[in-house]
Automatic annotation (TrEMBL):
<dbReference type="InterPro" id="IPR023271">
    <property type="entry name" value="Aquaporin-like"/>
</dbReference>
<feature type="transmembrane region" description="Helical">
    <location>
        <begin position="95"/>
        <end position="111"/>
    </location>
</feature>
<feature type="region of interest" description="Disordered">
    <location>
        <begin position="1"/>
        <end position="36"/>
    </location>
</feature>
<feature type="transmembrane region" description="Helical">
    <location>
        <begin position="256"/>
        <end position="278"/>
    </location>
</feature>
<feature type="transmembrane region" description="Helical">
    <location>
        <begin position="187"/>
        <end position="209"/>
    </location>
</feature>
<dbReference type="InterPro" id="IPR000292">
    <property type="entry name" value="For/NO2_transpt"/>
</dbReference>
<keyword id="KW-1133">Transmembrane helix</keyword>
<feature type="transmembrane region" description="Helical">
    <location>
        <begin position="142"/>
        <end position="167"/>
    </location>
</feature>
<dbReference type="Pfam" id="PF01226">
    <property type="entry name" value="Form_Nir_trans"/>
</dbReference>
<feature type="transmembrane region" description="Helical">
    <location>
        <begin position="58"/>
        <end position="83"/>
    </location>
</feature>
<keyword id="KW-0812">Transmembrane</keyword>
<protein>
    <recommendedName>
        <fullName>Formate/nitrite transporter family protein</fullName>
    </recommendedName>
</protein>
<feature type="compositionally biased region" description="Acidic residues">
    <location>
        <begin position="18"/>
        <end position="33"/>
    </location>
</feature>
<feature type="transmembrane region" description="Helical">
    <location>
        <begin position="216"/>
        <end position="236"/>
    </location>
</feature>
<feature type="compositionally biased region" description="Basic and acidic residues">
    <location>
        <begin position="1"/>
        <end position="13"/>
    </location>
</feature>
<keyword id="KW-0472">Membrane</keyword>
Amino acid sequence: MKRDQEQGEEPRQTQESTPEDPELSREEEEDVGESQLPRAVVLHEIIRTQGDHELERTIAALAWSALAAGLTMGLSLMAMGLLNANLPEGGYSKVIASFGYSAGFLAVILARQQLFTENTLTAVLPVMSEPTLHNFGRLARLWSIVLVGNLIGTILVAYVVLHLPLFDAKTDAKFLEIGTHVMENDASAMFAKGIVSGWMIATMVWMLPAAENARIWIIVLITYLMALGDFTHIVVGSVEVAYLVFAGEASWSDFLLTFAGPTLAGNIVGGSLIFALISHAQVRSDT
């Protein structure tokens, strides 16, 4: 009987059995790798390479692209004016009409035209990676050409929108309201709001390489929030304020001293000195 009991006993397991880790095929491993978001250092290198390419472009190429971008940004003013003119007063009209602000940005960014505030991040990263006098000179050259080209384009489109019979009286009145609303800010408010605007554009530029099919939604979301928050942007705002100047509602000294100077400084601080510097420091700390 004892032998039968011994024979009936099951051998004891000396250690617990654990399921083996599943083995992945090469295709599945590739799927896992592709599903990962790019590391910050990868995004940094993508944008730095783009910036280095922009710094090497000829003066003519930069100038024509910047002029085209300035003209294209007129779409933002036109879209907001048309939406405001065709929406009922009050209520959610600002919430809806602010989507018009995104029109110019979508056209400029997807067409790869030169926009100054994009370059406060893209062209700055090569300089931060290699801060030589040569690179600082290349950055100053790029910024000056692109800024002048953008402003010439915005001023031209503001003049055309005002003087050609393109829109009805109600829409023209909305254009004036948009410009007047911008000029309700004093110089310090222009600067402070410009910092936020520059930071938001730099955030958008940083996100785009990883956005893939969501690029349009990222552009719309960021620029829509800029419009909703009334944050000042040197290029879009130039169309709005120049329209006001040509209509006799503001002077060129107002344009330069109250709007353009403080807004430009704020955009540079927000895009270059805050976002670009912090992003570069983050990547340097990882390497």
